[in-house]
């Protein structure tokens, strides 16, 4: 059997299906002798995956083996647990594995730690109570066990570095001991003590010391020591060195160490060994953003690497060059990249590099417009159809929106048209589809710019494209669309119609539609001029994103007895309740029916969550175009001012320098090679030495190119405030303020309309006067007695819509010299409203305060609220954020920063618990029963009830849960209680509790996967704290 | 984290594969094929690291390989692993592997590695890899412990198929051979007995 199993493994490895043997592998693990068991376990771990059904059969065997007295069996069981184990069955083996942490054999302890690590990876919430045991493992006397626990810590620290700062000292001590050779000699590898352990520790230290001066200071000494020790010339010492370098450059910098590290990088880069060279380049790439001078030191090596025979080295070099690109060397670098691209055949590299070239070309289109167009043409023809679709999109948008000067726009467009016309004259068969699409769009839009060019001529050339069989229908659509734009003259029209007629009977619907449209537009001249105005390519269309024009239609339909709209997930749930297969096509109907849902059941949480998820989509499509004339003007004025301030003399000469140098390089082919390289170097690294000059230029140029357009129409106020940061004259500021201040009334009108739909931020200006009069609002939970007058006053600044709601106490987040920040959580029915109070605690006025928050776990409205001025002492502004938890987690961290003109940025972070997002869900017992059956994800666990003496344990436990977690108690039947709650995004979770003998068995079910898990964790906590 | 360990020969035939992240069977084969395609194109005098390839985890994916005689040892790792560290790990694990395979000689010279040894001792190689790389994590283990593991394995092997178990096995083999014969003998005997009984009849 054993031999046969090994052969089955071999068959699977070669790619032949051997699923018939899976069950035998499990049987072998169950029943065989020790040797057979081992093969059985091995086969299982190779054949099956975590959610395989057969794995459940293994659980019992694992349990038995874990309890076995035979060390080898325990070992095998732990190994298989740490490789694959079903998530649902973790509670069954968890206590046994925990016991093994105190086993006398170190190998068992080590494997137990790894098994727990595996548990942590697949179900972090279930092992949260044993974190202190990890600490014990870290202090284990056996280095092997300690090493194993480091993996857990690396993971934990990666997730939240703040909570483990206290361990820095221990890690430093461990590393010191390892470096000092305190470990047994067995751990030496090529006479380096425990190299992999060292690397692991260095990685942890890098995570801990990142942006934290105090913690970094603790590790300087040991890092220095590591650098010094790692001097033997062997691969593994270089591995440690490399890790050391990364740590040094990640943590808070110390000049002495940086100097040493720079020397080490030199060792890597100059090494004749190709692997080390590769790593040296990688290190340089990593470092060069902080210290561009390092690249200067090694410029000759970098140039050599550019001509290296190994494409991997070449690519890494280009990556490095990409990082040091500035306005002056961009043309040379892009040329190098394109050279490489022409030779490379690897698809992945092409996609990656094409994206980078496009980014560079867009970022620095400076040298000359023709260069930009040529580069983009090269990108399109090389990148072909594999490149990311947003590259052509961005390019077209850039052409359409243009830059700041009309003349420049015209030139650029003209150049594009010229180059494409000449391209079309040559053979077009080799061009990629995407490129053809771009060509046809540009010709359709801009060919009128070229004087003396007959539209008919263009139509004819485009028509030739269509004759080629190789082009796809999508491209044909683009070509037809371009033609319909060109039908200005009767001559062109006649030609276009001839072409279009061919396609009116085409089988492809999109193509056919385009052709028919063209024909119809050709017949009706009035309509054509209205639909396709000739110079109207960048007039912003007003798009009604709420689709309110459909309201009438919807209410008519409703009146006629049509069923009200239900969002797709609700329908799917209903469908799954009825046990009917569900089919796909609901996605399409989504945008149209938005207004219907807001009409019919605006209050229902499902509709709200739908609309908030929709808002992303809407924002992308229509909203940005609303930006009206009066908002645009101050913006432009501001940029002009900034332009004027920029001493134009700085970059003009350096330009010429770059050009002339690159020209020199091209002409100097006759000169000896070394010379050539040096010149290439000088053209590549130009501008790096004087980076103070190069950097701001680059960043400012980027800022000018993209016109800032606000996300949302209702936020004129905010955008005005933003633009005030550009203009420096006080009179302009006054005007802006005048605009801004009377706004709140109608602003709050418009936003309260928009908030449920778009999930926007309300900006409420609370002036001193209003706070005096509005201080006596009826509050549900009067805040606890706060000594400081300021804080007790704060809740009254909340807008009237939020005053009646439950809220938490105000807590202080951070405070600087002049600004103090506090936050308060308001539990609204459909979101958690986070109110951040910014108060001026200095005597002077603070200008241009802006507050920005972000969170990885939550959906945060992506915006920065800006207040123009906080003029006097104790002036307070409130910034409100509606937070919704999309993917459940036990907690979520919100980070934010506040900046203002006169002061450094203050940053703060706030931890929100899942409980903040839980709302009671009122249900009847019957509804509960129905829902219970339809939910697929469940978790069960027994919790110890601490107080045995209580009369009615269930009652007490339920009340505790209700109070702590805001659950709704649906019913209590005998010894069982059922409760229901929902996440603010509208997704329910049901709980079933019953008590027996001092234990509370909790069973949670929900339609989403992680919610029961996370909620269980909080239940556990609530019961324990009771 | 190490995502996969692949060992294949110069022709791309897999000799040992171990995935630490689940992939469907056909996906695994595709990964092997693509990896072989990437690695085999490279000369021996270029660097041992490769980036890119879109199969496992996109851009956060590196290949680190070594080429010994007819075999490629490829480790697929994510960006958190150190390249040189893994490169040496490959060397270490090959030493271990061939320690287990050539038990008696402890032949550390793996220039003349024979693929067949890998095929015939596949399970043992897996056990050793399990000790060095557990669940995708590189474990710093001391050399002696690995050697002890190897020896334990050999002892177990011997205790089943070696000298100590030889008499018992011989006995059981004989028994097994006899079992089917015994009734046949009896039957034949019966017939034999019956025949003489019948003959006078």
UniProtKB/TrEMBL annotation, chain A:
Annotated AP-4 complex subunit epsilon-1 C-terminal domain residues: 919-1024
SUPFAM superfamilies membership: ARM repeat
Record's GO cellular component terms: AP-4 adaptor complex; endomembrane system
Subcellular location: Endomembrane system
Superkingdom per UniProt: Eukaryota
Region (Disordered): 691-720, 766-793
Membrane topology per record: Peripheral membrane protein
Compositionally biased region (Polar residues): 691-702
Classification via InterPro entries: Adaptor_Complx_Large_Subunit, AP4_complex_esu, AP4E1_C, ARM-like, ARM-type_fold, Clathrin/coatomer_adapt-like_N
Keyword Transport attached: yes
Keywords: Golgi apparatus, Membrane, Protein transport, Transport
One GO term of the biological process aspect: intracellular protein transport
Biased composition (Low complexity): 766-785
Pfam families the UniProt entry points to: Adaptin_N (PF01602), AP4E_app_platf (PF14807)
PANTHER family: ADAPTIN, ALPHA/GAMMA/EPSILON (PTHR22780)
Known function: Subunit of novel type of clathrin- or non-clathrin-associated protein coat involved in targeting proteins from the trans-Golgi network (TGN) to the endosomal-lysosomal system.
Similarity comment text for this entry: Belongs to the adaptor complexes large subunit family.
Quaternary organization: Adaptor protein complex 4 (AP-4) is a heterotetramer composed of two large adaptins, a medium adaptin and a small adaptin.
Entry protein name: AP-4 complex subunit epsilon
Organism this protein belongs to: Scleropages formosus (Asian bonytongue)
TrEMBL record, chain B:
Predominant location category: membrane
CDD domains: AP3_sigma (cd14834)
Domain AP complex mu/sigma subunit residues, every copy: 1-156
One GO term (biological process): Golgi to vacuole transport
Signal sequence coordinates: none
Keywords carried by this UniProt record: Cytoplasmic vesicle, Golgi apparatus, Membrane, Protein transport, Transport
Bilayer topology term: Peripheral membrane protein
Cellular location(s): Cytoplasmic vesicle membrane; Golgi apparatus
Membrane is among the record's keywords: yes
Pfam families attached to this UniProt entry: Clat_adaptor_s
GO cellular component, one term: Golgi apparatus
InterPro entries documented for this protein: AP_complex_ssu, AP_mu_sigma_su, APS3, Clathrin_sm-chain_CS, Longin-like_dom_sf
Keyword Transport: yes
Function summary: Part of the AP-3 complex, an adaptor-related complex which is not clathrin-associated. The complex is associated with the Golgi region as well as more peripheral structures. It facilitates the budding of vesicles from the Golgi membrane and may be directly involved in trafficking to lysosomes. In concert with the BLOC-1 complex, AP-3 is required to target cargos into vesicles assembled at cell bodies for delivery into neurites and nerve terminals.
Sequence similarity: Belongs to the adaptor complexes small subunit family.
Name of the protein in its database record: Adaptor related protein complex 3 subunit sigma 2
Organism: Scleropages formosus (Asian bonytongue)
Gene name of the encoded protein: ap3s2
